[in-house]
Amino acid sequence: MNSTRDIDALIDMMAKLPGLGPRSARRAVLHMIRKRELLLTPLADLLQQVAVSARECMRCGNIGTTDVCDICTSEKRGNGQICVVEDVADLWAMERAAVFHGRYHVLGGTLSALDQVGPEQLRIPQLITRVDTENVTEIILALNATIDGQTTAHYIADQLEQRVTLTSLAQGVPIGGELDYLDDGTISAALTARKSL
Amino acid sequence: MNSTRDIDALIDMMAKLPGLGPRSARRAVLHMIRKRELLLTPLADLLQQVAVSARECMRCGNIGTTDVCDICTSEKRGNGQICVVEDVADLWAMERAAVFHGRYHVLGGTLSALDQVGPEQLRIPQLITRVDTENVTEIILALNATIDGQTTAHYIADQLEQRVTLTSLAQGVPIGGELDYLDDGTISAALTARKSL
């Protein structure tokens, strides 16, 4: 192997990142060493900064560098809508779509009997508190269309149906999707939810 | 997008690594932030160290943290054989195979008329110097089986044929390779170089 401990250790550490294996980690490290000024040093500095500054928003669970994230503090976003997502990655995906103008609540996972994840392991109690304290008009359940995701959606719906309007993302044919490649579940969901032209 | 500059910048920087795109960079960054103690902080420290310590071996071109790499300094490796490779990654691959016990010479690329890469842009003069100064008995040309790789091999052979034994890696069917999936060139090379059982 390559002749020095630091570099080996760096490769092993990089290989632990999702989407990278030992081979791609080696490629990445060699690439960084070749582009030291452009890539290696700035990347090291950024990691140091983020390691210090990154934190969870105490209100919605988004990841940022402030105790309460920009979305929660922004006046513009206070329209009474809260979009409930499993994960920060889902929140970021919603933000990239740039169509939702309310606030978010990140559960940090889904209910799962198998993995013994109950409401307390998720941020469901905090969500209920928010519904009681902030003037929330609508909860949009944007959970993944998996069994666990839907179970969690139903649980939250049961908890909140009396107090607030509950909606969920529409299911159907993805834009650019070809029927031929879609699973039966999606097709039947799209047929059931068909709309008149 | 996610609400903070540092994190965005980190994602953009990670996305520049080979094998990572914006999406996988986001996943990697979220993963690191979740595993701050285990991954983010140690990775930042390692990058800092490597950014300072990584350097090219002034003799063979390997990347390490010393001016002359462990392989070049190791007495055990001084058997008069020099394995010529295009790239540090190739050197590391040879070392993983752990069958070669000589030293290396990294060219840093291949001759290419198109990209205007001549012998001076590569480390070919240094190789010739090494042949004259170190007591080299054999040069093993382990260049990629590409047109540029083979052109470079031929050029080096022309330069050195009078002075030293020149060999190159055997070409043939890779271990575990299925004929059905092999290109014609490999099959014909393997047939030409067939050996009696």
Automatic annotation (TrEMBL), chains A, B:
<dbReference type="GO" id="GO:0008270">
    <property type="term" value="F:zinc ion binding"/>
</dbReference>
<keyword id="KW-0233">DNA recombination</keyword>
<keyword id="KW-0862">Zinc</keyword>
<dbReference type="GO" id="GO:0003677">
    <property type="term" value="F:DNA binding"/>
</dbReference>
<keyword id="KW-0863">Zinc-finger</keyword>
<keyword id="KW-0479">Metal-binding</keyword>
<feature type="domain" description="Toprim">
    <location>
        <begin position="80"/>
        <end position="174"/>
    </location>
</feature>
<dbReference type="Pfam" id="PF13662">
    <property type="entry name" value="Toprim_4"/>
</dbReference>
<keyword id="KW-0227">DNA damage</keyword>
<dbReference type="InterPro" id="IPR034137">
    <property type="entry name" value="TOPRIM_RecR"/>
</dbReference>
<dbReference type="InterPro" id="IPR023627">
    <property type="entry name" value="Rcmb_RecR"/>
</dbReference>
<dbReference type="InterPro" id="IPR000093">
    <property type="entry name" value="DNA_Rcmb_RecR"/>
</dbReference>
<dbReference type="InterPro" id="IPR006171">
    <property type="entry name" value="TOPRIM_dom"/>
</dbReference>
<dbReference type="Pfam" id="PF21175">
    <property type="entry name" value="RecR_C"/>
</dbReference>
<keyword id="KW-0234">DNA repair</keyword>
<dbReference type="Pfam" id="PF21176">
    <property type="entry name" value="RecR_HhH"/>
</dbReference>
<feature type="zinc finger region" description="C4-type">
    <location>
        <begin position="57"/>
        <end position="72"/>
    </location>
</feature>
<dbReference type="GO" id="GO:0006281">
    <property type="term" value="P:DNA repair"/>
</dbReference>
<comment type="similarity">
    <text>Belongs to the RecR family.</text>
</comment>
<dbReference type="GO" id="GO:0006310">
    <property type="term" value="P:DNA recombination"/>
</dbReference>
<comment type="function">
    <text>May play a role in DNA repair. It seems to be involved in an RecBC-independent recombinational process of DNA repair. It may act with RecF and RecO.</text>
</comment>
<protein>
    <recommendedName>
        <fullName>Recombination protein RecR</fullName>
    </recommendedName>
</protein>
